Amino acid sequence: MKFVQKEFSCTFEEKKSKFIAFLFPYSMFDEIMAKLRIEHPKARHFVYAYRYLNEFDQIVENSSDDGEPKGTSGKPSLAVMAGAEIINSAVIIVRYFGGIKLGTGGLVRAYGDSVNEVIKIAQFKEYQKLIIKILECEYGELSLLEYLLNQEEINIKSKDFSTNVKLTIELTNEQFEHLNTLLSRNIKVL
């Protein structure tokens, strides 16, 4: 499974109708939908599809035809995302009607193709399930520990400075097992 970390867009034309597909992180859905409705006041349809993982690691998906004939736009867009194993992402396709009716089959193809085109240009990151761990060290060991975490490309979520320093880190199980072999005895895993 994979996801995008920023917005990508691509324009696709079919029989004078213009389909502008925007692929972006799911967390930005409401903000980007509002922005697109302002930027494209003459557009006929704002079709969308999204897939994300909830807190139970279940895939939640939804789509909307936004006035297009039922099942001709949102569902095909969602099917393309599912086929490409894209999660935690959303796509909005802005359609400008070109005066020529495409028919149901034409709409399914056009929306599917527009999502495929934006997927071709998008940059994806591979999804990995992350766990949270807390490391505790003395102040004197902090810079060495931070250097090690940086070398292993492990994300530091927060630092808590009290009697000792507590670092909250986010990493995969495999990274944690490897990191455990590299940590000095003075560093505690809480």
TrEMBL record:
A Gene Ontology BP annotation from the UniProt entry: regulation of translational initiation
Pfam families: DUF1949, Impact_N
Domain of life: Bacteria
Impact N-terminal domain location: 15-119
Domain called UPF0029: residue spans: 135-183
A GO cellular-component term linked to this record: cytoplasm
Family, per entry: Belongs to the IMPACT family.
PANTHER family noted in UniProt: IMPACT FAMILY MEMBER YIGZ, IMPACT-RELATED
Protein name, per record: YigZ family protein
Organism from which the protein derives: Arcobacter cloacae
